[in-house]
Amino acid sequence: MLQQPMTGIAITGSGSATPALAVDNYMLSQLVETSDEWIASRTGIKQRRLADPQTSLSAIATIAAQNAIAMAGITPIDIDLIILATSSADDLFGSACQVQAELGASRAVAFDLTAACSGFVFGLVTAAQYIRTGVYQNILLIGADMLSRWVDWSDRSTCVLFGDGAGAVVLQASEKDRLLGFELRSDGTQNKSLNLAYQGQAKELFEGTTISQGTYQPVTMNGQEVYRFAVQKVPEVIEKALHRANLSVEGVDWLLLHQANQRILDAIANRLKIPNEKVISNLANYGNTSAASIPLALDEQVRQGKIKPNDTIVTSGFGAGLTWGAAIFQWGR
């Protein structure tokens, strides 16, 4: 009699990596009209890590992945699938396959997933479906971004926000299901609130035939609209995910939000009535690392011994698209 595959989900390892260069608010005040007080009071950010020209996204994604694989107690050859959540790949065709090669994960299928700052949560739910259906047993999920490549360093409304980094987790098939619930949402009518848009110019190839050629423009953002969107929509989607998980807020050990802005984190926690001591925040040191922010913060807390096995974590990503989502999971096997 054939043994049925395990279809529960456990998150068994985490890892992270950031570039060496730390740029603090004072350094940015040499570029644009701003100050440490202005940035810190409005965002909670004190510094961010920026990649130098020799550092690739796939390189830091690989380091984060190696750390997660080691914590999970498996090897790269055990990985069935690699999902790289990123909006700033080294190659527009995707960087997941490059990470697969650098890891030596020769059995793994690999692809990129783009959902901006929601990418890790969307990737988590996507990975879970492959395990739930019994197709794969070991999945590596990486969130990595280098938005410093796409920031206008003369625009103080955006250049102070973003940093570079990578975080990763290993999801494994398990008898006990640790992914308790999720909810994902999108609203393309608000797309213009946060963009990294292509801009092309008409180029006539030959008479009567014109194409568009150009490149991507720096990040643009309507900060007030994004703030209103996050503070309104994120608590709602968390409450729906909690309902699916048959949990109340009181049963939550940690609130792990996308690290966008401390005022957003505080407002969401207040609306949900989650006390500050349960709110994970490391954006003071890293800024907004987009798809990397949740797994990077998770890995720090795990390695510091703050997040312990069986702790219940509510996580939510939100950003460009506009997209947002929440997932409830218990850490460990």
TrEMBL record:
It is an enzyme of class 2 (transferase). Residues 111-188 form the Beta-ketoacyl-[acyl-carrier-protein] synthase III N-terminal domain. It holds the Pfam family ACP_syn_III_C. Its EC number is 2.3.1.180. Residues 242-331 form the Beta-ketoacyl-[acyl-carrier-protein] synthase III C-terminal domain. SUPFAM superfamilies: Thiolase-like. It catalyses: 3-methylbutanoyl-CoA + malonyl-[ACP] + H(+) = 5-methyl-3-oxohexanoyl-[ACP] + CO2 + CoA; malonyl-[ACP] + acetyl-CoA + H(+) = 3-oxobutanoyl-[ACP] + CO2 + CoA; (2S)-2-methylbutanoyl-CoA + malonyl-[ACP] + H(+) = (4S)-4-methyl-3-oxohexanoyl-[ACP] + CO2 + CoA; 2-methylpropanoyl-CoA + malonyl-[ACP] + H(+) = 4-methyl-3-oxopentanoyl-[ACP] + CO2 + CoA. It is found in: Cytoplasm. Residues 259-263 are annotated as: ACP-binding. GO terms for cellular component: cytoplasm. The active site is at 117, 258, 288. One of its GO terms (biological process) is fatty acid biosynthetic process. Pathway: Lipid metabolism; fatty acid biosynthesis. Keywords: Acyltransferase, Cytoplasm, Fatty acid biosynthesis, Fatty acid metabolism, Lipid biosynthesis, Lipid metabolism, Multifunctional enzyme, Transferase. GO terms for molecular function: 3-oxoacyl-[acyl-carrier-protein] synthase activity; beta-ketoacyl-acyl-carrier-protein synthase III activity. HAMAP family: FabH (MF_01815). Homodimer. Catalyzes the condensation reaction of fatty acid synthesis by the addition to an acyl acceptor of two carbons from malonyl-ACP. Catalyzes the first condensation reaction which initiates fatty acid synthesis and may therefore play a role in governing the total rate of fatty acid production. Possesses both acetoacetyl-ACP synthase and acetyl transacylase activities. Its substrate specificity determines the biosynthesis of branched-chain and/or straight-chain of fatty acids. The last Arg residue of the ACP-binding site is essential for the weak association between ACP/AcpP and FabH. PANTHER family: 3-OXOACYL-[ACYL-CARRIER-PROTEIN] SYNTHASE, BETA-KETOACYL-[ACYL-CARRIER-PROTEIN] SYNTHASE III, CHLOROPLASTIC. This is Beta-ketoacyl-[acyl-carrier-protein] synthase III. The gene is fabH.
